[in-house]
UniProtKB/TrEMBL annotation, chain A:
InterPro entries: Cyclic-di-GMP_PDE-like, EAL_dom, EAL_sf, GGDEF_dom, Nucleotide_cyclase, Rev_trsase/Diguanyl_cyclase. Residues 220-254 have a biased composition (Low complexity). It comes from Goodfellowiella coeruleoviolacea. Residues 255-267 have a biased composition (Gly residues). SMART domains: EAL, GGDEF. GO terms for molecular function: cyclic-guanylate-specific phosphodiesterase activity. PANTHER family: CYCLIC DI-GMP PHOSPHODIESTERASE PDEF (PTHR33121), SIGNALING PROTEIN YKOW (PTHR33121:SF70). Residues 210-286 are annotated as: Disordered. CDD domains: EAL. This is EAL domain, c-di-GMP-specific phosphodiesterase class I (Or its enzymatically inactive variant).
Automatic annotation (TrEMBL), chain B:
It comes from the Bacteria. GO terms for molecular function: DNA binding; sigma factor activity. The keyword Transcription applies. Residues 24-88 form the RNA polymerase sigma-70 region domain. It comes from Goodfellowiella coeruleoviolacea. Keywords: DNA-binding, Sigma factor, Transcription, Transcription regulation. Residues 172-201 are annotated as: Disordered. Signal peptide: none annotated. Residues 119-167 form the RNA polymerase sigma factor 70 region 4 type domain. Residues 184-201 have a biased composition (Basic and acidic residues). This is RNA polymerase sigma-70 factor, ECF subfamily.
Length: 737, 201
């Protein structure tokens, strides 16, 4: 022993090495334990301190047994003797109602309920069983009659007052809330019990009707005895009142159905020896109940997923906010499954339902084990999760990560896999200061900003962005009127040939001269409309205005007339009406088709299977030239480019702006150079945007780009000024080039 | 909720008490939280820690010995009692392993593995030694450990050193550090072991 101890201090021995190893590991463990707090831990720490200081008015006299007690509320509950109450309660119930349980069992149950109610009255945070559930258990499980429930409330009311006085906190509102919840739960439990019993009876009676002709021969007893013993048919017991008295003139109807109880209605499933059973009323009531249940389900449940729909979710959120307390922190997590609607519309409805139900299961599964969580389906592709339990705030980040991971997993259909992108927006608020509407609106904005950023796993919105978003949406709604009243004009950005500096084209961009907000770029509004699924007549208007301008320039400038490039949104390029709009515009304005260039996103050129949109082939047949806009900035498949009759590609400003900068420029230059080379090899015209000065222009020329566009070439101007630029003022550009 | 000592006339705690308590809370919250998480990863450590601090706040003007040791003792007892009554409770709030909480996800795999190994070895120790070594790793002095465990400081330091010796005896030395020769297959059949594995110098 001593030898070992000595050995561990002698360098070179294995005992010494082990001691050093353990010291090392323990030191690192200490470092881990003493690591600085993460932001989540820090937040939890602040909230906990505020709770502690708010809960207790100050240092108080300690309880008798300091260590190991569960909580202060529980201690107070334990001090208050519940046994007399339970004894009196049980006696009161037994006096007016037939109880199915034994005395001891009844007392145990009532003791459990009394404890929970006491906790709810003294320290609602500690209670685990809601008063609604207690009321429901009294009605549904214990079959308490209304008289027994009245006796219960009469007994519990003064007791609750005494209890709160004993604990030194008289809160009539809390008492009223508890008893309201209790009564509500009792009423619901009673209704459900009656419906279930009626359903059970109807099933039994229908079976009776189907079996009636065969009762004499088709029901052999399993034991072979001549008189089969009747057994209860339904899973539900007979009810609080004993089943109707069977007179001497009755006989069981069929095996296994003779004593079907109808506790709620008082009738029985036995047949008079000389008359038919009374079936009509029970069947009708059940049909009504079923119809009502179906109606409620349709009104409050999402048909496909079984989750609460938007209406039900709103009501649940309202209730949860009211129950959470004024300063309780709440979070609403909105999850949009990107591409769900457009993807599943391609399949038949059954497949569509399967995919949505699968995704709903994943969303619901992410909240497993969390308390105070409400999940609902807000929209075709949007789910929402409300978290009200402050302890689960710790795991909110984990929840978001789980959501992102689980939804991004492919959904397997029979022979294919679908992959969806989750967009998640999180809104934080205080229960007293937030409403359902504000939470949902902010969640929508968070989703939109997340879609735009597309980098963050989740986004928390600030009030400023809410105001900005509201303003954008009001502008969006007023846009169609502005188009009609002529407040929207086209501005043209010059596009110059790099080799000689001649202005050969113009990119048309609509601007809204708003009386209050000044000049508003309409492209942003169009993008927003695309995002929220609004179809605006803006695209059609732009194409028509651009064609008119191109025809005018062709008439005035002849061979020097520039082409007009129009940006087409992805939604518009997916639309088959695009061909019709273009054809109509060309015919009515007499514009030369070769002077019109449509710039589309690469994703807008192809359909879901990777094939060309047929209507785009028609467009090229009109001699309208197509260009791929913003190449290299989104997910792109270059293997499909070889099959596309694209006339040109447009390299976006993000890649051009950093050209020529010492450190970042090298990588950008490699990417931009590759794209230019790709375009040239495919016999495309290459336009480079974002040329803001001589530095970028020099780099564009070096890389081999053919056309340049940007502030270095010219700012967007009106059509008349642009005409002057083309006819006489090209000197600056030429010098620059 | 009455209190006369070191408090304002209306029974509320004084400003100084608040300030002292906040300082104490900021200093020790994380340590207690991680101690409870290490002890029982599947319990709601935040709630237990809050409860422990709440108890300390209730007796703030009547400290029972060293406050930090008192705090750890309450946390330990609360966690023990929650462990005992776990079967009666509802679903635990969070089923996270302690290393997921304590070691950042960005930490390299070796760090996580080492932490897991260390914690596993510590969990295999007898209860009193485990408590002593974990409290020691949390920076408690032998006096404080003695107060938490209900023994003398001398016994506490003896626990710590015994725990260290046990850990050292059970530690697996990394291969290649001392064993310069990799044993051949033929050696393994007859050789009782290398010198290091027999504990010889």
């Amino acid at each position: 022993m001593i030898f070992d101890r000595v050995l561990q201090w002698l360098p070179g021995t294995s005992a010494h090495a082990r001691r050093r190893l353990v010291d090392d590991r323990l030191a690192r463990l200490s470092a881990v334990l003493g690591a600085p707090a993460s932001p989540v831990e820090d937040a939890v720490m602040r909230v906990t301190l505020a709770k502690i200081l708010a809960r207790e008015a100050g240092p108080a006299d300690p309880p008798a047994d300091e260590r190991g007690e569960p909580a202060a509320g529980a201690a107070r509950t334990r001090d208050f003797d519940l046994e007399p109450l339970v004894a009196e309660w049980a006696r009161g119930i037994c006096e007016v109602c037939c109880v199915l349980d034994s005395q001891a069992g009844l007392r145990d149950k009532l003791l459990g309920f009394a404890k929970e109610l006491a906790l709810r009255l003294l320290d609602p945070d500690m209670a685990t069983l809601a008063p609604e559930l207690v009321g429901r258990a009294l009605a549904y499980d214990m079959h308490l009659t209304t008289r027994a429930f009245t006796a219960t409330v009469r007994l519990l009311m003064p007791w609750a007052e005494q209890l709160q006085e004993f604990a030194g906190r008289n809160q009539p509102q809390l008492r009223a809330q508890v008893f309201a919840d209790l009564s509500c739960g009792y009423a619901e439990g009673l209704r459900d019990r009656l419906f279930d019993e009626q359903l059970c009876t109807t099933t039994a009676l229908q079976l009776v009707r189907t079996r009636r002709p065969a009762t004499a021969v088709a029901d052999p007893a399993p034991t072979g005895s001549a008189a089969p013993e009747p057994e209860p048919a339904g899973s539900e017991p007979a009810g609080s009142e004993p089943a109707g008295s069977e007179s001497a003139g009755t006989e069981p109807v069929g095996t296994g159905l003779g004593e079907t109880g109808l506790g709620g209605t008082g009738s029985t499933g036995v047949r008079q020896a000389d008359g038919p059973p009374a079936e009509g009323t029970a069947e009708d009531a059940t049909q009504r109940a079923l119809w009502r249940q179906r109606l409620l389900r349709c009104a409050y449940r999402d048909e496909v997923t079984g989750l609460p729909n938007q209406r039900d979710f709103r009501e649940r959120v309202t209730a949860a906010l009211a129950a959470a307390g004024v300063d309780a922190a709440v979070a609403l997590c909105a999850v949009r499954v990107g591409g769900l609607v457009s993807t599943i519309n391609a399949f038949e409805p059954a497949v569509h339902d399967r995919v949505v139900a699968d995704l709903a299961c994943r969303v619901r599964g992410t909240t497993a084990g969390m308390r105070g969580v409400t999940v609902g389906r807000l929209d075709a592709d949007t789910f929402a999760i409300l978290v009200t339990n402050s302890t689960d705030w710790v795991s909110l980040h984990d929840l978001v990560k789980r959501l992102a991971d689980w939804i991004a997993q492919p959904v397997r259909l029979d022979d294919r896999e679908l992959v969806f992108a989750p967009w998640i927006g999180v809104v934080a608020g205080r229960a007293g200061r937030s409403s359902v509407e504000s939470l949902l609106r902010q969640a929508e904005i968070a989703l939109a900003s997340n879609v735009q950023a597309a980098k963050q796993p989740w986004v928390v919105v600030d009030p400023g962005s809410v105001a900005r978003d509201r303003q954008r949406r009001s502008l969006l709604m007023a846009l169609p009127d502005a188009l009609e009243t002529g407040q929207v004009r086209l501005a043209f950005s010059p596009i110059a040939r790099v080799t000689d500096g001649v202005i050969v084209g113009a990119e048309a961009s609509p601007w809204w001269r708003h009386p209050e907000h000044g000049d508003v770029p309409v492209a942003d509004l169009v993008a927003l409309a695309d995002e929220i699924g609004l179809t605006l007549p803006v695209g059609q208007w732009i194409i028509r205005a651009a064609c008119a301008q191109a025809a005018r320039w062709q008439h005035r400038l002849g061979a020097r007339a520039p082409f007009v490039a129009v940006n087409v949104s992805q939604r518009a390029s997916d639309d088959e009406c695009l061909v019709h709009h273009v054809r109509t515009a060309l015919r009515e304005t007499h514009a030369p088709p070769a002077k019109l260039r449509l710039r589309m996103e690469e994703a807008g050129l192809f359909d879901r299977r990777g094939g060309w949109h047929n209507h785009l082939i028609e467009l090229t047949g009109l001699n309208v030239r197509l260009e791929i806009n913003n190449i290299g900035t989104r997910y792109a498949r270059f293997d499909r480019l070889t099959s596309v009759p694209v006339y040109g590609i447009v390299v976006p400003p993000a890649l051009v702006a950093k050209l020529g900068v010492a450190e970042e420029g090298n990588c950008t230059e490699a990417v931009a150079g590759s794209l230019v080379a790709l375009g040239l090899r495919l016999n495309c015209e290459v336009t480079m945007q974002g040329v803001d000065g001589p530095r970028e222009l020099g780099c564009v020329r070096q890389l081999g780009g053919q056309f340049a566009q940007g502030r270095g070439i010219g700012e967007p101007v009106g059509p008349d000024e642009f005409e002057k630029l083309v006819t006489c003022a090209t000197g600056d550009v030429r010098r620059a080039c | 909720m009455t209190n006369a000592r070191n408090a304002c006339d209306d029974g509320r705690p004084s400003h100084d008490q608040h300030t002292d308590y906040k300082t104490f809370y900021d200093k020790h919250y994380l340590a207690v939280l991680r101690y409870v998480r290490g002890m029982a990863p599947h319990l709601d450590a935040v709630e237990i820690t809050a409860d422990a601090f709440s108890r300390v706040w209730e007796t703030w003007d009547r400290p029972k010995g060293e406050r930090r040791a008192w705090l750890f003792a309450i946390a330990k007892n609360l966690a023990r009692s929650a462990l005992r009554s776990r079967s009666r409770d509802a679903v635990p709030v969070e089923l996270t392993d302690s290393h997921d909480v304590l070691v950042a996800h960005t930490a390299d795999i070796e760090t996580r593995q080492e932490y897991t190994d260390t914690m596993r070895a510590i969990r295999e120790l007898p209860d009193h030694l485990r408590d002593a070594i974990v409290l020691n790793a949390n920076g408690l002095s032998p006096q404080e450990i003695g107060q938490v465990l209900g023994c003398s400081p001398r016994t506490a330091s003896s626990y710590v050193s015994r725990a260290r010796r046990l850990l050292a005896a059970r530690a697996d030395l990394p291969t290649g550090r001392l064993s310069r020769r990799r044993p051949r297959d033929s050696d393994q059949a007859n050789d009782p072991g290398d010198r290091e594995t027999r504990g010889e110098a």
